[in-house]
Each structure stands twice: as C-alpha cells, then as structure tokens.
Design goal:
- By secondary structure, the protein is an alpha/beta fold.
- The chain folds into 2 domains: 157 residues, Glycogen Phosphorylase B (Rossmann fold); 150 residues, 3-Layer(aba) Sandwich (Rossmann fold), CATH 3.40.50.
- It contains 14 helices and 12 strands.
- Strands 3-2-1-4-5-6 form a 6-stranded parallel β-sheet, sandwiched between helices. It has a 6-stranded parallel β-sheet with strand order 9-8-7-10-11-12, sandwiched between helices.
- β5, α7 and β6 form a beta-alpha-beta unit.
- α9 packs across α14.
C-alpha cells in the first residue's frame, strides 16, 4: 500500500503530525509512506524512520512571485516529483487550500482515495477546499488536541485503531560532547531556553528568563540560548550577559543553527524550557524533560501531554518564575524515576 501524507507547515504543525508515521508503520507494516512538506522542514522528517520519500516544496516562497520563471521551473520540478508514484491513499493532514491543492495534484492508484478533514477543530485553521477535494471527508471532534487530530484522521482513513501513546519517532544519535563550543563541555547539565516565537504576545519577560537562569545556575545547570533572528539574538545575548555577570560560562549563546543542527544540539541537552513555538514542540518530539510556557489557555490543544516528563504552565498575564521552576523540578523528578 502506498500512502501520501500532506502536511506542509508550520514547524509545530509538522511536529504534531509526526506520530502518524509510526502509527501507520505499526498498523500496516508493509506500507510505503511518503510526505509532502515545506523544504525548510524536510531535514526534520529525514530523522523520522519509516518515511520512504520526502517531497519538498516551497509554496510559501512561490506564492510571493507566482509568475517568475524560476517559480514556474521549480513548480514543474515539484509536480514531477509528486506525480512519480500513484497512491492508494492521499491524506491531507493540514486542512488548508494549499494542502488541498497538493492532495488534488497527487496521482491515485486504481481504487485510491483522497482523505481530508470534514470540519474545523477548536483553535485550528481550516479552509473549505480541503473537503471539496477529498473523496472521503472525516469529521473529528472539535475539542481535540493537535496531535490526536492527525492521528485520528489517518487511523480512520486507513482503517486501523490507535493502540498507544504518540511516538514521534525522531532519531538523533547522542553525542558525548556538544559541537557548538570551541571548548567542548559535558552536556548533562545544559538546559536550553527557547525564548523566541513568531508572536510577541507569546513571549515571556526578559527579567523572568534571567531569574529562572539564575536558579538553574545555582542548581548546577548551564543555560544554552538558541536564536533564529536578529531580535532573538539580542534577547539571547541579554540573558547571557546577565547570567555571566555572576559566574563566567553560566550561559552560552549558540550560533545561528539550521533546523537539523538545532535539533541535534537540543537532543544533547538535559532539558528545554520554552514558550509555545515550533522549536519547543521539537523538544517534545525528542522526549526531553521540557516545560512549555503559555500566556493563553491553549495548552490543551498544542501543549505536551506525556505524563509528567513534559508539562505546560499557563497563567495570565504570564506564568511566574516560581511556577516554571517548580514545573521544571517536577519534570526532572519524573525523568530520574524513569531512568532509575
């Protein structure tokens, strides 16, 4: 059986759909699974065992200059890749017009069908063309977690029953030393702060990051500070400068890392504390001890649900340092129990 998954973006949404691959592998061991995704996220899927083909696209970029010669050339190349195979099932996990277009352009094998969401779930984006294109539109209960939504859609499309908790399947070999340091250090005491987010109303105050970093330093942890933009770099430097005033090397600012390299470095950490962002969701998929911060009551929909090893902390106007610190201690305690 040949199956095509369509989940193009964004990073967090792609991460939330990862368990579908392992679900299908468990239920249909002989299935060939392909996935269409934005090129910038393809390296993450490359770490997911069980995918036969990853078909990259750049629809976000192509829409900015749809008539350009380069866009037309790249679109034709993408179509050639997409239509190399005829699929028994094409599953649109995203529910947007752009994903519906990709699903429609994919080739079906004789008797093959296209599946999609029949409705919007609470807090998610949804556009009607996804069900117009589908041969079978599947209704999902509106109050459903983002991970469960994709898992249930695929299970019902392919006729299997979900048997276990989500398995994201990310495979990152553990290194003995981190590579972003000129002077390598052991990694067991490193905690990454994911402070960057595309929405300013999801940010946590700078003073809170510094206060939390001081508590971690006092407990023997070093703080690692990734960034993905010039403004995030300024925040990383501000946190590092404040922490390093007390004790040199209490915090390090990582260089700008591509997604693949960032995933590797996160995997070497003792844990991650971060706002609701794609990178924080990668930490969940890596099964790291993780505290995810929410200024909005949406953690039920996108936050970790892993039995205490990873938790979300919600408060308005924003979680307190004490609440986040206690959540971190609880995550670490669960981790130590599991490792014992």
């Amino acid at each position: 059986m040949k199956i095509l998954l369509v989940k193009l973006s964004s990073l967090g949404d792609v991460v939330h759909a990862l368990p579908v691959v392992q679900d299908i592998r468990a239920a249909l061991p002989g299935a060939q699974i392909d996935w269409v995704v934005e090129k910038s996220f393809a390296s993450l899927l490359a770490r997911c065992p069980g995918l036969h083909r990853i078909i990259p696209c750049e629809i976000r970029r192509w829409r900015k200059s749809p008539l350009a010669a380069a866009t037309r050339r790249e679109w034709r190349a993408f179509l050639a890749q997409l239509q190399q195979e005829a699929y028994d099932a094409v599953i649109d996990l995203q529910g947007l017009t752009k994903s519906a277009v990709v699903a429609r352009l994919a080739q079906l094998a004789p008797g093959g069908k296209r599946y999609a969401l029949a409705n919007q779930t609470d807090g998610s984006a949804y556009e009607a063309p996804t069900r117009w294109v589908a041969d079978v539109a599947i209704r999902i209960a509106p109050h459903t977690h983002a991970v469960q939504r994709s898992r249930e859609l695929a299970a019902r499309a392919l006729g299997y029953t979900l048997q276990s908790a989500p398995n994201f399947g990310l495979k990152v070999p553990l290194a003995q030393e981190v590579r972003v340091q000129s002077a390598p250090e052991k990694i067991a005491n490193r905690v990454a702060f994911v402070h960057g987010t595309s929405r300013t109303d999801k940010e946590w105050p700078l003073s809170h990051w510094i206060a939390l970093g001081q508590r971690l330093n006092a407990a023997g942890y070093q703080v690692a500070l990734p960034h993905g933009s010039a403004s995030e770099l300024l925040t990383s430097r501000a946190i590092a400068d404040a922490l390093n005033e007390r004790e040199p090397a209490s915090a390090i600012v990582w260089p700008l890392l591509a997604l693949d390299a960032l995933t590797e470095e996160l995997a070497q950490c003792a844990g991650v504390i971060g706002v609701d962002s794609g990178v924080s969701h990668v930490a969940v998929a890596l099964d790291l001890p993780h505290v995810q911060l929410y200024n909005f009551d949406t953690a039920w929909r996108t936050g970790p649900d892993t039995g205490g090893r990873q938790v979300s902390v919600f408060a308005q106007p924003t979680p307190t340092v004490e609440a986040v610190w206690q959540a971190w201690l609880a995550c670490r305690a669960v981790h130590r129990q599991a490792a014992a």
